[in-house]
Every structure is written in structure tokens, then in C-alpha cells.
């Protein structure tokens, strides 16, 4: 079997896809796996050895130059792409997976003659491949700054049915008491500042005098790092060399870098600083051994492609050296901070139950979801959190009922020649209430809000889009209420039995045992 994986993204994204590629290898151990990636990231071969059989390169930089620079023949870029398509088609792949999910990869995959294409691809002028619920969620949540309940790797793992493993490497395998800092990122907005890292280094070495701190950097970063740190404190290395340092390090403190994704795959404990456009809900280090420190400033996360519009970098100022040191202390001491955000886990369970259904008629598997939830330490606060959770459910249901009530009938919209915003003004008011309340962080009404922002060629299309979004909202709210009811029932039964056993005197167990013994003169119990 031959499999082609498209990954036409940046270096950090490709490294982040390591768990997906390893899961693909585990699922198809005998397959030939080929990886298509941009030529400038060829050095990623050094960290994906043993997983990929062949690397194929797309020379995106030169092809773009060929389209825009006068010294190139206008047909040169077309010829380059045509030759690549011929090369790929000659491989006779059985399966293709698009990990990139952008227009370039979709158009390229659309030109390939592969019987089984999964993920986004273009065919007959239209984008295909979004019939999978997990891919639709991915498509809706990763296009802007809206939050996601699931990590990038989780979403693609579920979409392509690839079993993932986040199990951390045991701490005993860490041989050196070395803390590594990755101070610089590819985007100035994501940098915490070298002076902050210098103070953190001094704090760690004073408080934990048996640990030493080293500063990671690429060769082109040496001059910048040397302005603050001594040459003896620097570890200037390439991607292949950094592997050995990460495997043995006690901790990595980093911003949003490719190094954090590499460290996650080696089980290195991580303290990650999410600044600027970094969105930890989507692309934090995919590891159980990672702690993320997020800024609380309202402008974060900002748009990835834009420069910071603030007079100062408020997100960096919002995270103190003391905050980062406290997280580093917890990681080095092995005391895992309990995640107590029960609402997040409940919302994730609701969406998982919804996305895992093969069809709207299929009933969700509540037993698996409840079993998973009860293994979470956050569930100890379920009874305490229940009143606010139920109050939010009531508010969500109120918005849904209002929206259904004021949605114009399809027949009415079908008769309109011109559409005006006043025709759906009440729906717009409801959408504004939802956004202002900030009570829908899980995105139950995101499809509804986006439907109202979409342009339409005919008024009836707004009914179809809004009504479709509200149908999904109704399904989600039904799952939410059913899950709550089952959790309440189990919680009540558990408390009842625990209370009963607690009140039963010790001799009560002896009496019960005696009453259940078989009478030799009587066949009954």
C-alpha cells in the first residue's frame, strides 16, 4: 500500500504532525508513506526518520517568483507544477491525506489520480472532502481567531481515524538537571523578551542551585542572544542536534516555536508562554507533560498575519517572571497542577458526542463519554458546578427558542425579490446578545452567527443556512441536557450508596454475609 501525505505548512506545523504520522505508521505498518512538503523545510527529515519512507519537495518559493518576476518565463511555474503532478501520479498511490487544509494543497490534491482522497481537495470547481464532521469543525474553527475545544492534532486524528498517544515519558528517564530556554520565536509578537528570560534564569539557578540553565538558539540567532547571555550559556545547534538536548533535559521553557512540538514528542516537560497570536487551544504543545501560561489581555490572541497594534506589547508584560518560575517549579518538582476547568471538559464531551456520530439518526455513545469524564479529577466539583452549568443551559435554550421563533418562514423569503437586513433584524439582535454575553465560549451558536454574516444571492438561502445552523445547535443542546441528566443520575446514585455504606455498622456486613449462606437443608438462599 502506498500513502501520500500533504503537509505544505511551516516547520513547526510539520513537526507538530509527528504524532499523526506515527499513528499512520502504526495503523499501516507495511505501507510506503511519502510526505510532500515545502522545499525550505527539508531539514525536518532529521526528526521524522523511521516514520516516512520518502520525502517529496514542492518548491513553493521559486514557483511564486516565477509567477511574479519578469526574469522568469511566464510558463515556467506551470511547467514545474505539471512535472510535480506527473511525478506524484506515477507513484500510483492508494490513499492521500491532506494535513494542510488550505487552498494550495486542495488544488494540488484535486489534480492527483488517487482513488481514496481524504481531507480538503478541489474537484470540478468545488471544494470537496468536508463531509467528515471533524473536518468541518476544523474548517470552521481554524480560519480565524475563534476558540477551538480541540487541539489541531486531535482534530486531524479524529478526522482521519488515527489513534493518538499523549502519554508522557516518565521523569526517571531524564538524566540531566538542565533547564533549556528557547527565547526567540519566528514572530516578534510571540517573544516574551530576553530580559525576562535573563531574570528567570537567575531565579531558577538561585532557588534550585543543582540545576543549570542553557539557552537554545539557531546559528542566525547567536548575535541577538549574545547581547544578553554569555557564550558559555548558549547551545547553538540545528534541528538534529537539538534532539539529544531535549531528550535529556529536565524542562523546556519556550514561546510558540517548532522546538516545543519537538520537545512534546520526546516527552520533555514544557512550560509554554502563549503570547501574541499564539492560541493554546489549537496549537499548544501536544503533550500531557506541558503547562501553558496564557496572557489575559483582551486583544489576545491577535491575528497571525498582522503586526501588534498596541503601543506596547501588553501580552508580554502581563506574564511575570514569578508566574513562569512558579510553573517551572511545579514541573521540576513533579507536582502536576490539577485541571479544574470542568466546564471545558463537559463542553468537549458534548461536541465529541456530536461529532462522532456517523449520521444525525445515530444515538450518541454516552457510556464512553461518562466513563472518560469520571476519570478526570475535575469531576469532583461536578455537584458544585451544576447550578451554573444548568443556568447556562437554560440561557442557551432561551436563545435557541427565540431564534427559531423569529426566523422568517422559507416561503416568505422565497417571495422576496430584494433582501434587506431588516428582514432578519431580530435574528441579528439575538446574535449580538450571544456575543456580548460571552457565555458561548464552546461555540454552540457559532454556525448561527456565521450564517448571518454570509453573503447570499437569494433571500431564501439565508433561511437554509440559518435553519441548518440552528438544527446543529438543537442537536448539541439535546446532547448537553442528556449528558447532564445521566451525570446527575450517576452522581446521585453514587452519593446514595456511599452514604448508605458509611452509615452501615461493621457488624452489618457480617449479618449480610450470614444471610446469604446456603442452608444445607434447603436449596433456597
From TrEMBL:
Database matches in InterPro entries: Glyco_trans_9, LPS_LOS_Heptosyltrfase
Q: What keywords is this UniProt entry annotated with?
A: Glycosyltransferase, Transferase
Q: Does the keyword Transcription apply?
A: no
UniProt keyword annotation of Ligase present: no
- Which Pfam families does the UniProt record give? Glyco_transf_9
PANTHER family listed in its UniProt record: ADP-HEPTOSE--LPS HEPTOSYLTRANSFERASE 2, TETRAACYLDISACCHARIDE 4'-KINASE-RELATED
Record-given protein name? Glycosyltransferase family 9 protein
